[in-house]
Design goal:
Largest sheet: 22 strands, antiparallel, barrel
Number of strands: 42
Strand content: over 45%
Shape: globular
């Protein structure tokens, strides 16, 4: 019977392992024998940040993690993750692994999460395959705990006032300055004195002749709202444990005229573990998110792009029927809805917002995990095995109804008697469809599986750990997008002697369908060691040191996360019809690209040296790491290698090299003074990368070479000032960017050829920060709590190139236009002269528009009071009342707009601070 039992176990394990029930290795262990560089996020801190996007809460939370926020509408302003900076001159984003598979972190709530770890070096990342080389954010969701019961309810509500909104001129000031722009360009002023007086005394947004619109005031509210509610259940017995989280989050938008955009989101997760026998445990996890978002006909991107560029006198919002009836063949009645527009527009934003229709967006995802865990100690003590399968489905549907009402442009001209006459020209006709139409319908599917065998054994002074794992994932999307398939086999071995000396080695075979033949596979390795210095005899009398460890590792990893499909193959497609003579001929066959069958994997050689320890009775903890990475074989097109006549038909090659190095550190001090407990921490990431090799000519001037500089270097012209104010126009080298005159930007002739052109561009700074920092403070006193998080960024340059800074052409003017230079009207001005043209000489990347983008932000504050139910008179065990705030203020040399999101409020929603209040109850 015993032999049959053993044979059954062996057969079952062999079937699971060798049939490929596969995927990711175990989460990085929080043990002193680790040789890896891993940062951990404090989950209590993360829950204090009210946000729709979890990615935004991670900024400043861990050493090595850089979170760059994006500009977007409600539910779309997520952050992009980087681990230890930029690794190549393409995609350097880190990946997020949630319960063993790559998943969006913004699809889950912080209440669902047990732990978040940042895997930073080769020995930590290698287990997660060919997309993990840029770094991994490893997330584990909560699992049930036997013989415990947790019931927690949370409620939170607040407002989100906007911050740092751009300001634009009214119609009178715009018209006055536009006349100046006309004169600057050598043409007659466009607006007469009568017009200017009319704009000064405008009746408002629907003044037929002299409209005056403050678009931000007319279309936007001062604040949006935030809503959140969660329920957590956790517990179980020795046979079965469960963890359940259900949450609701919601927000309302800033729209004032139309139906306010509204987002409602429900998250649900249930993780179940069942102990079937003494050697077999099964797990079944189900999670999902249902999101419903509704808004009018105009989304955030369109709304803000319009209100930041429309002239304040562009058109009247509405035209009264009596003002247009009978003119230019127009027939209306009192109930007609007639809207104004201009000769350069067909739409009317007010019409689109108030009457243009509606949009409904639905996003649904489901995630399923099924796993088995085998305790094989009956075969060998310390032997275990795991098998895990994941199924994810993501569905996105957008439906819309678009109404159109008549719009008319209004042109004024003088008749034969010199009287002003209005001419109305129809630009859009009435169109009122009855039903919504589907504008977008996409489905994504991810599938993954893994199997791993672990062996742990300790004897005498020796500790041995070994792990073999196989991982396979597929990512599918509807349409013509190519499926992504990856497989990784990994073996890890770890040995420790006397809990003092540690060595670890990892071998990995990675496979990807992005390559062909023998190049489809890449063999990676990592090796590391650690020395627990604090356990040495010579440290016994050093009372200030509780633990001190030195660690070092090196790895050779492959990367295929940024590689296109079929680059190894020459591709053709059916082209247009070719006619030898009318109605005679056939389709052509067009070349898509030349393939390169010898294309190889991009790879990384990485070194990490670190010191970590605790001191002064564990009150002080520190973890400092130096890292150096050489990324080679970066794939690109070597355009300088071929003649221009080749055009786009250049094969991809392994041509690039990037070196990235820096330091990340985390230091924390915790203690108490009387009954006040305090905890203060600082984490810092400093990175500096350098392009070592690319498709760049060797014989160009050093000042404009990309090689030898950061991959995020901004190249532009070196401004000397404004002609007529700072620089004499006469005798200056010729500038090749169109006509220029007094008031335009003068540029430096760096190569001395008496011609300013693209050969004079130079390094203006870099768009990616060199240093990011998080500083947090926690205070607790008799139930009162205070938490503060500040974030800082340095070493980044912003180019001020938005419509707020570039006042040119026929768009509206921001308040900065008042500071334009004019030798008579404004001789002390600092901005370029105004022009009705595109202003090609002025409005290009140059040091004139570069600004130090460094900043410090008060990122998050929570003030709370926890009331313990010591008397038992109430239902709950304890009650936590709190007030929270995010993005409360920012300090920066850039005062007009948000230095971290320079396009916020211009191309989409603005940056806003969040102020909420709520309660959390433990039962």
């Amino acid at each position: 019977m015993r032999n049959s039992y053993n044979r059954f176990l062996k057969g079952l394990f062999a079937a699971i392992f060798f049939l490929g029930i596969t995927s990711v290795a175990n989460a990085q262990k929080e043990q002193p024998d680790s040789v890896s560089a891993v940062s951990r996020v404090n989950m209590d801190h993360l829950k204090k940040y009210p946000t729709l996007q979890l990615s935004n809460a991670l900024q400043g939370q861990a050493a090595g993690l850089i979170a760059i926020p994006n500009v977007g509408g409600i539910g779309y302003d997520n952050s992009t993750f980087y681990v230890r900076g930029l690794h190549n001159n393409g995609t350097s984003e880190a990946i997020v692994i949630i319960d063993g598979i790559k998943r969006p972190i913004d699809d889950i709530l912080p209440e669902e999460i047990e732990s978040i770890q940042i895997l930073k070096d080769a020995t930590a990342k290698i287990m997660y395959g060919e997309q993990a080389t840029n770094g991994v954010i490893l997330v584990r969701t909560k699992r049930g705990k036997a013989n415990e019961r947790v019931i927690r309810v949370g409620l939170e509500y607040g407002i989100q006032p906007v911050t740092r909104m751009p300001e634009f001129l009214d119609s009178y000031n715009y018209a006055t300055l536009f006349n100046e722009a006309c004169v600057n360009d050598g043409i007659q002023p466009f607006y007469s004195a009568t017009d200017l007086e009319g704009y000064k005394n405008s009746k408002g947004v629907s003044d037929l002749r002299y409209p005056n619109v403050d678009y931000y005031k007319e279309f936007l509210r001062d604040a949006s709202t935030f809503r959140k509610a969660t329920i957590e259940l956790n517990g179980g017995t020795e046979k079965a444990t469960y963890a359940v989280t259900v949450g609701y989050t919601g927000s309302s938008g800033l729209e004032k005229v139309s139906d306010r955009s509204n987002l409602n989101r429900i998250n649900a997760r249930g993780n179940l573990d069942l102990r079937i026998t003494d050697f077999l445990t099964a797990s079944a996890d189900v999670a999902g998110r249902i999101e419903k978002k509704d808004w009018g006909a105009v989304d955030g991107a369109t709304l803000f792009s319009e209100i930041s560029t429309l002239r304040p006198n562009e058109y009247p919002f509405m035209i009264a029927p009596e003002d247009i009836n009978g003119r230019d063949g127009v027939t209306t009645d009192e109930s007609s809805l007639i809207f104004g527009t201009s000769v350069r527009k067909t739409n009317n934003l007010y019409m689109d917002m108030a009457y243009g229709g509606n949009t409904s967006e639905r996003y649904v995802n489901s995630q399923t995990n099924l796993g088995l865990k085998f305790d094989l100690k009956s075969l060998t003590e310390g032997l275990t095995a795991n098998a895990y399968m994941t199924f994810d489905n993501y569905s996105y549907l957008r439906q819309q109804l678009r109404n159109a009402y008549p719009t008319y442009s209004i042109e004024r001209y003088l008749d034969d008697e010199g009287e002003e006459v209005l001419r109305f020209t129809e630009r859009k006709k009435l169109n009122l469809p009855k039903k919504q139409s589907i504008s977008s319908n996409d489905t994504y599917r991810n599938f993954g599986w893994r199997a791993n065998v672990n062996y742990e054994h300790s004897f005498d002074l020796h500790d041995v750990l070994a792990e073999a794992a196989f991982r396979y994932t597929t990512e599918e999307k509807t349409g013509n997008t190519q499926d992504v398939k990856n497989g990784t086999f990994t073996f890890r071995g770890n040995y420790a002697y006397n809990k003092r000396y540690f060595v670890e080695g990892v071998l990995s075979a990675m496979g990807s369908n992005r390559f062909s033949g023998s190049n489809r596979y890449f063999f990676a390795y990592a090796i590391g060691g650690a020395w627990m210095i604090s356990k040495e005899d010579f440290m016994k009398d050093v009372k200030a040191v509780n633990s001190l460890k030195l660690k070092i590792n090196y790895g050779h990893l492959g990367y295929a996360g940024n590689t296109g499909h079929f680059l190894y193959r020459t591709n053709w497609k059916n082209g247009d019809k070719f006619e030898h003579k009318p109605s005679t001929g056939g389709p052509t066959t067009d070349l898509v690209r030349y393939g390169n069958p010898d294309l190889k994997w991009e790879y990384s050689n990485e070194l990490n040296i670190g010191v970590e320890g605790t001191f002064f009775n564990n009150r002080l903890s520190a973890d400092v790491n130096y890292f150096r990475e050489m990324r080679k074989n970066i794939i690109g097109k070597n355009t300088v290698k071929y003649a221009a006549v080749v055009g786009n038909f250049i094969p991809a090659e392994n041509i690039g090299e990037v070196m990235n190095q820096g330091i990340d550190a985390q230091v924390r001090w915790q203690d108490k003074i009387g009954e006040i407990h305090y905890n203060v921490g600082v984490n810092l990431t400093f990175t500096q990368n350098k392009l070592r090799k690319s498709d760049e000519l060797d014989n160009i001037e050093d000042y404009r070479k990309s090689v030898g500089r950061s991959t995020s270097t901004i190249f532009g012209l070196q401004a000397e000032g404004l002609f007529g104010k700072d620089v004499q126009l006469a005798g200056h080298p010729l500038q090749s960017y169109g006509a220029y005159q007094v008031g335009d930007i003068a540029y430096a002739d760096l190569n001395g050829d008496n011609m300013i052109n693209d050969n004079d561009v130079t390094d203006l700074g870099q768009s990616f920060p060199t240093t990011t920092m998080g500083i947090d403070l926690s205070l607790n006193y008799k139930g009162f709590g205070l938490y503060i998080l500040g974030t800082a960024t340095t070493g980044v340059t912003n180019i001020l190139s938005s419509s707020y800074y570039w006042n040119n052409g026929l768009d509206g003017y921001s308040v900065l236009a008042l500071d334009r230079y004019h030798p008579v009207n404004n001789p002390t001005g600092t901005q370029p002269r105004l022009t009705t043209t595109s202003g090609a000489n002025n409005y290009r990347t140059s040091s004139f528009w570069s600004e130090n983008g460094s900043f410090f932000r008060l990122k998050n504050v929570e003030l709370s009071y926890t009331l313990a139910n010591k008397t038992g008179k109430f239902i709950g065990k304890d009650f936590k009342f709190f007030v929270r705030g995010t993005d409360l203020f920012v300090l920066s040399g850039i005062k007009d707009l948000d230095p971290e999101r320079m396009l916020s409020g211009l191309t989409n929603y603005p940056t806003y601070r969040t102020i909420t209040g709520g309660i959390s109850i433990n039962f």
